């Protein structure tokens, strides 16, 4: 605590605060712009950090990470084109809210949820970095595999109107994720001799193509109708649509806390990432709700759940970095470079060797949370006007940014071809009502499941009986079985189109009678 | 078969161009560089090699008086970037900073990578990778012989494999000693370290990242032909009687046909990194030893290692996939 106060003294200088502001602003703007995101921000910032003081350099990078995670909600809500894949679930309810004239309310709730998730997760990091990281090491591949398989049952909650179509889309996601070098014997799969596919299909161009470009093309098809609607929805005719009311807070309180918790856990576990966190949180909130069928029509809880988890992942992914020196996310991996460059080796010894610098980094992260609230609030007033801009002006700008974003990460035209290919798939998915959310979950979680499963086979020495040494894994395997049985019985007992909750009551009634 | 053909054509054209405009080439080399230089890096931004490359780029740009812009083109262990380099104009304005494994190891593992040392000009190496076989600090053995003895008693132990090369090394040891190994695939250096710290594997091959964990990890054998500065007491795998040591070096490559004067200029500029303070800070923090080789030595080194390492992989019965 003493150190933390000293840390604040180091950080609360004009110099350092200016770099935090710069980082958060840059991240926020990049997050807002569809197609651009963390990858772009980091590419810009790395050379810069060579010339900065350690605290300022690290604060700048952390600012970018936090800012882009929050900013991506803005375009998700206003344009239905998430700035980063992790904000895809935000768009599910945020965009309908915007079309109902409640854009301001959705944006504000998105920001508040982001900041709360981010702040609480940072506090968690500060209090628990060392003990939690030791616990995280207990979660080996065997446990991770069981947890991931369990999380896949959430696909049921996210698949939209038809469970079957949701599962098909999820399976396609897994299928496309198998492209590239196979991890155990390094044999190329489905690469068609293309060297560019050796490392698999890249997530960013796929997400941009399916989420942003496809959406723009669909909107171009409905341009007249959308513009007519836009004219009618004069933003916020009623004051209660522009602010977050107490009643909204009451509804969002639990989803935000749940989102923060899910985001923090996902962040601590290696190899998952923000997309998994926000999808899981959205799915869990939908499942816990009284009226899951209303999700996707503009429920404010959906926005709160997705955004709080999305942002909670970022600080939590620093827990393994600080405590063990293991990066939990892309930004964390980049931060290792920044730390090392400035003579600090992430890991347990960091706390003993340079407690002042660690405290300063913590203080910088807390400051970044506050600055994020300020910049987000100011920025929204400007960005919210986008909702009233005619579609024909938005589309070309977004398409241009998408191409830049797809190209930026690997610097190759090949990524733009991938983006275009998945645009076609995205349009088909929209037209035929297949869920792109379950597709992305399959694509993101699929490879992690495969890798951790194959690791588990080797670690368990190919014997089922060795599972008894992994009680955490056993618990999750049991949970998965219970959920699957409940889902299957619910579906067959309650008719084809019932929701999980409705069919659940049918079962109980059936038992009583 | 498409690539070698295209490369042959490029090389032929380059040779032709060089012959025809030899004079002009020399003149052009004299003014070199008069515009910014692009430096490709075949790994993601923020990785170890990228960090060294950026520090080297700074030294080069100070020496040459022109900006040296780092462009990351990740993919296939550097194969994507190297392929792009073969297609670039050989004028010294497109160069690549990378591990030489893309030429002296990858072609023997991947069917679609067909580079030979002749496909590039070599402007010198500056750092080496401290690859080694690593384990937990509290493990009951202190060298490779001790481990092999333990492994014979404990069949089915878990060995973390980061790359095809890592797999090949254990396969060779296992073949010779009759060990039974479970190969646990890991993605990336971070996960490899995790597998050791979390005790999910008893042994792993590390590319040098373990230097940052001296309290938790020990090195049983180093995988280079020489002893490594960070672990002078750890014997080379060759000293243990397995001919498997392969030296990985990072340095500057240029497209085939880049004028020798320009290569000389780059080689001399890279030499300055040896004594540069910032460069020493960056590499020192990550425990990456500096071992400079000039253009002539680098060419000889890559030709020798290409021959010898190809032999190691062929003896191991590895077919490029």
From TrEMBL, chain A:
Keyword NAD: no
Superkingdom of the source species: Bacteria
Domain DUF112 span(s) in chain numbering: 17-440
Coiled-coil portions: none
Keyword annotations of the record: Membrane, Transmembrane, Transmembrane helix
Keyword Membrane set for record: yes
Transmembrane regions listed in the UniProt entry: 12-33, 39-62, 109-131, 137-156, 163-181, 201-218, 321-345, 357-377, 389-407, 413-429, 436-457, 469-488
PANTHER family: TRICARBOXYLIC TRANSPORT PROTEIN
Stated name of the protein: DUF112 domain-containing protein
Organism of origin: Primorskyibacter flagellatus
Lineage, top ranks: Bacteria, Pseudomonadati, Pseudomonadota, Alphaproteobacteria, Rhodobacterales
Automatic annotation (TrEMBL), chain B:
Tagged with keyword Isomerase: no
Pfam families, per the entry: TctC (PF03401)
Residues annotated as signal peptide: 1-26
Keywords for this protein: Signal
Gene3D superfamilies, alphabetized: Bordetella uptake gene, domain 1, Periplasmic binding protein-like II
Entry similarity comment: Belongs to the UPF0065 (bug) family.
Protein name in the entry: Tripartite-type tricarboxylate transporter, receptor component TctC
